[in-house]
Amino acid sequence: MRRHLAMPVLELPHAVELRLAAARAAMELDLACWVDMNTHTPNKAGVDELGTLLSERLEAMGFRVAELVGGVTGRTLIARMGYEERFSEDASEPAPEVPKPLLLIGHMDSVFAPTEPAASLQVDATTRRARGPAAADMKGGLVIMIHALEALHREGLLEGRSLRVILNSDEETGSASSGEIIGAEAAECAAALVFEAGRPRPDGATSIVTQRKGLLRLRVRARGRSAHAGVDPSAGASAVRELAVKVKPIEELARDHEGVSVLVGRFSGGTAANVVPAEAHMDIDVRFEDDDQRQELEDAIQGLLVRSEVRDAEGRPRVATTITERVFRPAMQPDEASAALLAEVLRAGADLGLHIEPEARGGSSDAALAMAAGCPAICGLGAVGDGFHTPEEWADLDSLFARARLLALLVLRLQAGAP
Fold it and tell me: CA–CA separation, 246 vs 308, rounded Å?
């Protein structure tokens, strides 16, 4: 464990507890409002609308907010408080001992497209489950983050602390535009807390995440030649056929590697039923447990892609297949530093009367980018829920309050060395 994580045991101030309790209705209202905003990753306007709202809330607490503009997806927010003051302007004077920043990571985008039926938050009064698109993944996590920070701010408990917040706009597609800034910020931080959803467990506990599979996503394009399907189909070269025969062997690669999955999740091609398709596309999603697995799978996929199916009479390839986009996120593997951070999280949860258990998950998250930069991270600290990425996604409304308390206490303890 890093030295600055060995800290005195602080309690959650009663005033903060009261503020969070008084904010329970506001948390639920924010969740309902944010769920109503469509923030599908390609919906730049929708993501930016939520980003503007969150930026204003962070600035009101004293954060300095910058925006990373990618052009294709929405803006990524980078908010900072403190830390820069730790450097002395006079090089002859030693820099004061101030803790490195605590990094909070969340994402504003979701997988729910604007073309899908609109669905406002639906609350079951008996179970306290709130069902709606991105309710748990991860608008509930954003609610927890903002309200915990606001409660600390209103009690003057953020003053002098070193905090950073990153809210990105392309996590659901692999953080292609924001991954570099997440790694750069994490490299300067003591620890990272990530607000993907937790899950309920059969024993009554709720989960946080300490281990995740890595992600490799490949976008593939095939280019052949169009022709009239009835007049002279042999003049064409079908890009759809070239890719279609590769789907089965690509997905079957998972059979030879324990703990991995390989999926062709999207496939498209052609322009009309009576035209030999000149172009086709497919997206391949690979989940792996370590980099050796990733390299072996990627090499095997490359080998299958270059194996030509559509050839002329002399056996020459007639369709060109290329990888046009590659998104990579490493596996999140526990280490000594993250184990020490986990101990602090579990101790804080126990002190608040929360039964929390760590778990491993197959899904990837930005926590892996923080850990790859040398920053210990814990994921799954957001709202408790399930049904992620489906029409049945739900979040436990009572978990908003419970986990906002947890975050508030963690900020105080992990930044206990602040003035």
Answer: 10
Q: How many CB atoms lie within 10 A of CB 302?
A: 12
Same domain, 139 and 250: no
Residue 166 lies inside a defined structural domain of this protein: yes
Task: Determine the residue type at 302.
Answer: Q
Residue ranges in the chain modelled with pLDDT below 50: 1-8, 85-88, 419
Antiparallel, parallel or unpaired: β 356-361 and 206-212: parallel
Report residue 25 CA to chain centroid gap. Answer: 26
CATH number at residue 313: 3.30.70.360
The crossing angle, in degrees rounded to 10, of helices 44-60 and 140-154 is 20
Q: Which residue has the tokens 């994490």?
A: 186
Q: Are the C-beta atoms of 219 and 325 separated by less than 8 Å? A: yes
Provide the pairing of β-strand 163-168 with 214-223: unpaired
**Within this chain, do residues 230 and 338 fall inside the same structural domain, yes or no?**
no
Q: How far apart, in whole angstroms, are the C-alpha atoms of residue 293 and residue 287?
A: 9
- CATH of residue 406's domain is 3.40.630.10
93 with 239, same domain? Answer: no
E strands in 169-260: 191-194, 206-212, 214-223
Say if residue 255 is in the same domain as residue 324: yes
Which residue type is seen at 26? A
| Structural tokens at position 355 | 């039964």
84 shares a domain with 182: yes
Q: In this structure, are 358 and 320 located in the same domain?
A: no
Residue 404, CA atoms < 13 Å, CB-side half-sphere: 30
Q: Residues 198, 345: contact at Cβ < 8 Å?
A: no
Query: What is the chain's Cα-based Rg?
Result: 24
Question: Residues 285, 304: one domain?
Answer: yes
- Enumerate the β-bridge partners of residue 159: none
Q: Tens digit of pLDDT for each residue in 119-174?
A: 789 999 999 999 999 999 999 999 999 999 999 999 999 999 999 999 999 999 99
Give me 165's structure tokens. Answer: 């917040």
- Longest C-alpha distance within the chain, in Å? 84
Q: Which amino acid is at 129?
A: R
**Has residue 279 been placed in a domain?**
yes
Domains of the chain: total: 2
Is 308 found in the same domain as 167?
A: no
For residue 186, how many other CB atoms are within 10 A of its CB?
27
What are residue 192's DSSP bridge partners? 103, 377
Q: Which of 225, 220, 238 is nearest to 310 (CA)?
A: 238
Say which residue the tokens 């789907």 belong to. Answer: 247
